């Protein structure tokens, strides 16, 4: 196993791609502009990255559209597309340490999370989706004897994927694997806070045999490159993961341009319901801590709202504080680290602001507190638990996207369900009970795309991922993801 010293040495030799990837080659932004990519653990410059805008978007969309129309990928036999995507997964596996380093340096996630979660999940997503391509059949509708109606799935054309910084490689693969598998051309715009792994992946895609123009990567800001993709008339699908605020803007761009389909994976404020009949309070507490403090709380499905039944509140809270004290923010290149820095100074300030507001609104800080920032030492925030919280408090309603946990209480099952559902979001939820009927009853009544019973955060390529309400629409992963990137076509034949 690679140790801290070895990861640090490797991080010094890793090559950082920094130009846009269009039509199978790296190139600077048309404007020549760049933006700085900063390591949040050291606040040092990693590299200046091409800052793409509308001019680069036009080039990338032209190239993607030409490639699509040429049929070089879109009309390839599914079996051939499968082989190329499998090769891409193999190449990613061969370079797994390099990709782990790229995201850790770029956004501060611990190297141990990268190697245990992000890398294997990304490889599996590409491999699993590739394996599906030549196993999907069309349909013949039961119309009657004198006609034949064929129903088939066709690629949509040009897909723009706009992704966030919290799982840079993983979020990119969740979009591009099914979009490419279906035969589309893809333009990926990674977050300006974490563009490095996407740029390297583009290079590997070419090496795997994905034809030029089929997979392009445009680093740049949301209001420039992202907006230009959203408004472009030749982009047919926008696949987005990010905040609810930006998700709404993408819907507007679609309305202002060509009614492109918009698939949204947006914010969350997931509840965690701990019932008194939960058979392992310590386990529930340890999982609750992991559900908010892993990846520094920069997790869309983070269970940031605990609702614990009054009768076990004291026992549960003591176990929670104990479990949380094992999360210590430190150098993300150390494999022993379980929490890295926040992605940047703005995110650290957001965390500080919400902790201040929680205190002002009557919350009792049981652990952590407002971060003590030291200039030049990284954007570290401690795990923070605030008790005596309730749904009327701002920090219980708003997504913080940091290591801040609200502990609220309830008396009855009905009350717990009502409190959990009293949120604009509906991404995930966790329920702890040994009562099978209650587990099913509560899971049915919770308004969210995903519910975990006596666990949290389980996921697999075979299972869809996504939310309801302001958490979005559509689903990543599983065969359901393919629906986002294909059109239904029917052909009638009179016999
Ligand atoms: P964000 O919305 O700020 O940015 C996401 C992406 O959108 C970035 O690439 C950004 O450049 C781009 N963007 C910003 N403004 C834009 C505009 N005007 N037009 C087009 N594109 C624009 O989100 P973030 O801070 O990068 O990520 C955190 C958010 O992502 C959180 O809300 C989190 O819950 C959410 N998230 C959701 C899921 C999910 O599956 N539901 C997964 C991960 C993260």
UniProtKB/TrEMBL annotation:
Gene3D superfamilies assigned to the protein according to its UniProt record, in alphabetical order: Aldehyde Dehydrogenase, Chain A, domain 1, Aldehyde Dehydrogenase, Chain A, domain 2
Name of a matching Pfam family: Aldedh
Aldehyde dehydrogenase domain span: 31-491
Superkingdom: Bacteria
GO molecular function, one term: gamma-guanidinobutyraldehyde dehydrogenase (NAD+) activity
Enzyme class, first EC level, given as a word: oxidoreductase
Keyword Oxidoreductase: yes
Stored PROSITE patterns: ALDEHYDE_DEHYDR_CYS, ALDEHYDE_DEHYDR_GLU
Keywords in alphabetical order: Oxidoreductase
Active site annotation, chain numbering: 265
EC number: 1.2.1.-, 1.2.1.54
Family matches, as InterPro entries: Ald_DH/histidinol_DH, Ald_DH_C, Ald_DH_CS_CYS, Ald_DH_CS_GLU, Ald_DH_N, Aldehyde_DH_dom
Similarity section: Belongs to the aldehyde dehydrogenase family.
Protein's name according to its UniProt entry: 4-guanidinobutyraldehyde dehydrogenase/NAD-dependent aldehyde dehydrogenase
Organism, as annotated: Neptunomonas japonica JAMM 1380
Gene: kauB
